[in-house]
């Protein structure tokens, strides 16, 4: 029997992720949305692309959660997207209500699934899913760090004119302006970028990474990023479905790791068939530790507002 992945939300991020999962033949895909006809139309379009891509994945668009039953992974992209001038925090109350309603339906039909929230503000929304679902923390994994690291890797490759395949980037903290890119752990073919770029260039990359989403929102005028977010969540889906034991930066529920308690914050994680299989702890400098704690507190302020 094929594996099954449900994507809740048929907007740009959800559709991009669903198409990639089907193209890679990772699983059968269900796309769910409250909009009548939209997930059905997009799902049929993707299904008809599968012969061209050489994929036998089955794709179904639906408005009925019953069609999502027994999913192995559920990706939640549903929610309002940022508009120009809107911070992630502005989305808090509306997306809180959406996430709560979605999670209640997801766990009803797929009680054994791994849930990957993508909706912003990411860390707070992952905490909503965790509290509502009652799932162990291993099965709630927020998509943020993979995206942030991908942006940093792209900027490093541009700055040094090297292949992105040679680049690795390390980003901790909440998904937002307080994220903590770590240049000394970010490398090109194993060489720290601090040895390849001067301090001003490194700082420019760190700053651009932290504001990567806002840069795209400003350029688009309406809407927000979706190609990179879609690809990022698919990397996580693949790591779990293939039990890859892959180390990826994800937002997970910390219970003392890095000195942070009872809060979703981005850290390096090993992802495998059971979901979150290990949190990788590294030694931080005093300045990095302060920055991470500041980022965690920014997340904590949000979760306290919505009381999760």
Question: Can you offer a commentary on this structure?
Answer:
Helix 1 packs across helix 8, helix 3 (92-109) runs parallel beside helix 4 and helix 4 (122-133) crosses helix 9. The protein is globular and about 50 Å long. It folds into two domains: 4-139, NAD(P)-binding Rossmann-like Domain (Rossmann fold, 3-Layer(aba) Sandwich), CATH 3.40.50.720; 145-305, Lactate dehydrogenase/glycoside hydrolase, family 4, C-terminal (L-2-Hydroxyisocaproate Dehydrogenase, Chain A, domain 2), CATH 3.90.110. It has helices at residues 12-23, 38-53, 92-109, 122-133, 145-160, 199-210, 212-220, 227-241, 286-305, and strands spanning 4-8, 28-32, 59-62, 73-76, 114-117, 167-168, 171-172, 180-181, 187-188, 191-192, 246-255, 261-272, 275-279. With 308 residues, it is of the alpha/beta class. The strands form four sheets. Strands 3-2-1-4-5 form a five-stranded parallel beta sheet, sandwiched between helices. Strands 6-9-10 form a three-stranded antiparallel beta sheet, with helices on one face. A three-stranded antiparallel beta sheet has the order 11-12-13.
């Amino acid at each position: 029997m094929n594996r099954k992945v449900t994507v809740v939300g048929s907007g740009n991020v959800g559709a991009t992720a669903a198409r990639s999962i089907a193209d890679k033949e990772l699983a059968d895909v269900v796309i769910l949305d409250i909009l009548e006809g939209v997930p059905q139309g997009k799902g049929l379009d993707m299904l008809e692309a599968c012969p061209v891509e050489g994929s036998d994945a089955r794709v179904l668009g639906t408005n009925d959660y019953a069609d999502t039953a027994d999913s192995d992974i559920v990706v939640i992209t549903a929610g309002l997207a940022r508009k120009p001038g809107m911070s992630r925090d502005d989305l808090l109350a509306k997306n809180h209500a959406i996430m709560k309603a979605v999670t209640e339906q997801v766990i009803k039909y797929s009680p054994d699934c791994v849930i990957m929230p993508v909706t912003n503000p990411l860390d707070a929304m992952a905490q909503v899913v965790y509290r509502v679902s009652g799932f162990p923390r291993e099965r709630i994994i927020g998509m943020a760090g993979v995206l942030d690291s991908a942006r940093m890797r792209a900027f490093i490759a541009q700055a040094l004119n090297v292949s992105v395949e040679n680049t690795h980037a390390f980003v901790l903290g909440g998904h937002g302006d307080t994220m903590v890119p770590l240049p000394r752990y970010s490398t090109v073919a194993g060489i720290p970028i601090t040895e390849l770029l001067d301090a001003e260039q490194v700082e420019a990359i760190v700053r651009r990474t932290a504001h990567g989403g806002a840069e795209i929102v400003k350029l688009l005028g309406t809407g927000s990023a979706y190609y990179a977010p879609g690809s990022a969540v698919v990397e996580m889906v693949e790591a779990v479905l293939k039990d890859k034991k892959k180390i990826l930066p994800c937002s997970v529920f910390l219970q003392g790791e890095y000195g942070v308690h009872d809060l979703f914050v981005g850290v390096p994680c090993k992802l495998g068939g059971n979901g979150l299989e290990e949190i990788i702890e590294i030694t931080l400098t005093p300045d990095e530790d302060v920055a991470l704690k500041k980022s965690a507190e920014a997340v904590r302020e949000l979760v306290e507002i919505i009381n999760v």
